[in-house]
Amino acid sequence: MLRAAMLFLILLLTGCGGQKPDYGSLNLVDVSGTVTLDGEPLAGAAVLFESKDQSFSYAETDSSGHYLLQFNSEISGVMPGPKTVRIRSTGLAFEDGSEEPSESDEGDGPERVPARYNSASELTVTVSESERRFDFELTSH
Length: 141
Hints:
By secondary structure, the protein is mainly beta. The chain has one domain: Immunoglobulin-like (Sandwich). It contains one helix and eight strands. It has one helix spanning 2-14; strands at 32-37, 40-41, 46-50, 56-60, 66-68, 81-88, 123-127, 136-138. The strands form two sheets. Strands 1, 2, 5 and 8 form a four-stranded mixed sheet that branches.
């Protein structure tokens, strides 16, 4: 009984989930900006900054098209370096997890952002301490 109580106390003090990540070692940079489509703020859009290894930071634009990237659900930011930017009006993912909608995806309607800004993105940036604001003025044609 004493052994069980000590084991429980050790688990309680150390935590069952292990240690939290050391976010300080990632040198995360807070990145924000605004997205417009044909001169109007693009509200509710998904913004992804993707690295070559396919890791990414993400955001959703507010009603004025403003975004602030999240590294994960606990902390904001993005790791420095070159990124491919993907922007879509229909949210972060489709029901089946693919980059293309299926017939069952209803969301907010059809994708309004052309593929050249999302699945076949031509948008690239380099994130650094001095480069941390990126505005995107997209056109639908």
